[in-house]
Amino acid sequence: MKIALIGYGKMGKAIEEAAQKRGHEIILRIGRANQHAFTREHLAMADVAIEFTSPESALHNVMKCMEAGLPVICGSTGWNKQLYLAKEKCAATNTAFLQASNFSIGVNIFFEINKRLAAIMNDWPEYEVRVSETHHVEKKDAPSGTAITIAEQIVDNLKRKQRWEPDPTSAAEAVSIMAHREEHVPGTHNVVYASAIDEIELIHTAHSREGFAFGAVLAAEFIQHRKGIFTMSDVLSGAGA
Q1: Active site includes 135?
Q2: Are residues 129 and 142 in the same domain?
Q3: Are 173 and 111 in contact (CB under 8 A)?
Q4: Same structural domain for residues 88 and 175?
Q5: Which domain holds residue 175?
Q6: Alpha-carbon distance 55 to 132, whole Å?
Q7: CB atoms within 10 A of CB 229
Q8: Which of 64, 89, 139, 204 is catalytic?
Q9: Is 205 helix (H, G, I), strand (E, B) or coil?
């Protein structure tokens, strides 16, 4: 598989290493210094694009790749309100698109457990839930896209919650998210259900970027020959394989 990397920072380099370990070829690396190379002609040489940049540039980058006929994996977070535009462009260009707040296999297993636990907690109103996340100081969006996904899953499955809010919140119907930024932390996410007698806690701790990179490459392998809009749940289940 020939891959175009859009975003060649720390994450882009980790994806490059993971892709090469699986026998793939990186034929285009777009960073801040070579935006002039981000052309339709160069993109046309690739089989799939993997985009990890910023919320400010993600939509433009994704659309440019789709216009070149490329299926796109996108790991940029913080642009959820514009996602519908990318999905519309995917349909218009008959390509494939997969955006995820987190590509780690472990995190996506965590997501499934989180949804199940939230549904169980409908029967136990004495437990109050909160979400927290800790990332490196360079991360631009807070709370993280992963933490928002976790909170939205709780809202979708726990009837007494209608929305999420940044911590602190006094709204009983809201899931609070506390965001922390520290040096050299790839990412930790916690969900805590606390009652007067005990606590139940789910934790995912990333030790490096390798898990995110590996998952992004798996997602690229999955959508290479597909059309439409997909999720990491599709990748994990091998839907249509």
Answers
A1: yes
A2: yes
A3: no
A4: no
A5: 105-206
A6: 21
A7: 17
A8: 139
A9: strand
Q: Which of 24, 64, 89, 135 is catalytic?
A: 135
Q: What is the 3-state secondary structure (H, E, C) of 166-185?
A: ECCCCCCCEEEEEEEEECCC
162 HSE (CA, 13 A, CB side): 3
How many domains in the chain?
A: 2
Domain co-membership, 91 together with 175: no
Interval 112-121: pLDDT, tens? 999 999 999 9
Residues of the chain predicted below pLDDT 50: 240-241
Determine the distance from the C-alpha atom of residue 135 to the mean position of all C-alpha atoms in its chain, rounded to a whole number: 14
Closest CA to 71 of 55, 40, 88, 50: 50
Q: Please state the φ and ψ torsions of residue 130, each to the nearest 5 degrees.
A: -145, 155
What is the chain's alpha carbon radius of gyration, rounded to the nearest angstrom? 19
Distance between start and end Cα atoms, the chain:
17
**Does pTM top 0.85 for this prediction?**
no
Q: Where are the beta strands (DSSP E) in 120-186?
A: 128-136, 163-166, 174-182
Nearest 5°: CA angle at 106, between 228 and 160?
A: 80
